[in-house]
Amino acid sequence: MKKYIGISYSESNFSNYWDWFVPDELQDDLELINLSYLKNNQEDFQRCAGFVLTGGVDVLPAISGAADQYPNMPAEFLPERDEFERALYLYNQEQRLPLLGICRGMQYINILEGGKLLDDLGVANEVHRRLAQDKVHEVILEPGTLLQEITGLQRGSVNSAHHQAIDPERLADSLLVSARSESSDRTVEAIEFKHKAQRGFMLAVQWHPERMQEKASNPLSQAIKARFLAELRKL
């Protein structure tokens, strides 16, 4: 029986997320669905066995807890997307289905679980914020975490394109940090649930595994995707 992966629509580089899941990996039993606030196709949630929350524009300050004005804020927000993805997340958690969060997706998971963000990274933008192209930096994985188990790594190289991040002092109580930036800012780079027995599979990362230059060989892309697909096939 075919299973469906719901990928939340992003206004920036959506095709990268879609194309990350190649036909040889999907085979005949998995298929992708575009879940979009533009179509408001919440009825398709029920068709999905797992979800990907993608990157994109900052979450509305009224939801994220950000200031009304902050450095590098976007010219406009997408409140319709925020509400659509809130409904997606609530459905995902009610059903305990596998979930991947990427960049904004990771930040929004923390928000929806009760955490807060740093409005802007300030001087750390030199390490993390995309200009002409993604930055590249090292991350340190926390031992004993799901991420460390999946990748088999203690450290690794990731791409970076963000100016906000999870506030480590206001991480949601239900979450734990599974990777941090090696740089002095120690930015939160990956999260997972603290108590996994009562929750579905969830892993969220600040980097962009779907567009790494060496995504097919870097475990911080390929191994994460492979485990996500394996969790879907378990259902």
Class based on secondary structure composition and strand pairing: alpha/beta
Q: Which blocks of ≥5 consecutive residues have pLDDT under 50?
A: none
CATH topology: Rossmann fold
SS element count, helices: 8
Compute the number of structural domains: 1
Count of individual beta strands: 11
Major sheet description: 9 strands, mixed
Distance between the termini: 11 Å
Oligomeric state:
single chain
Helix content: 25-40%
Could you report the average pLDDT, rounded to the nearest whole number? 97
CATH class: Alpha Beta
Helix/strand order, N-terminal first: EHHEEHHEHEHEHEEEEEH
Radius of gyration: 16 Å
Bulk shape:
globular
Q: Can you tell me the CATH architecture?
A: 3-Layer(aba) Sandwich
Tell me what you see in this structure.
It is built from 8 helices and 11 strands. The chain has 235 residues and is α/β, with parallel strands linked by helices. The protein has one domain (3-234): Rossmann fold. The strands form 2 sheets. A 9-stranded mixed β-sheet has the order 2-1-3-4-11-10-9-6-7, with helices on both faces. It starts with a strand and ends with a helix.
Describe the secondary structure blueprint for this structure.
Elements: E1 3-8, H1 14-20, H2 23-26, E2 30-35, E3 48-53, H3 61-64, H4 79-95, E4 99-102, H5 104-112, E5 117-118, H6 125-128, E6 135-141, H7 146-151, E7 155-160, E8 165-166, E9 175-181, E10 188-193, E11 202-205, H8 222-234
Parallel strand pairs: 1-2, 1-3, 3-4, 4-11
Antiparallel strand pairs: 5-8, 6-7, 6-9, 9-10, 10-11
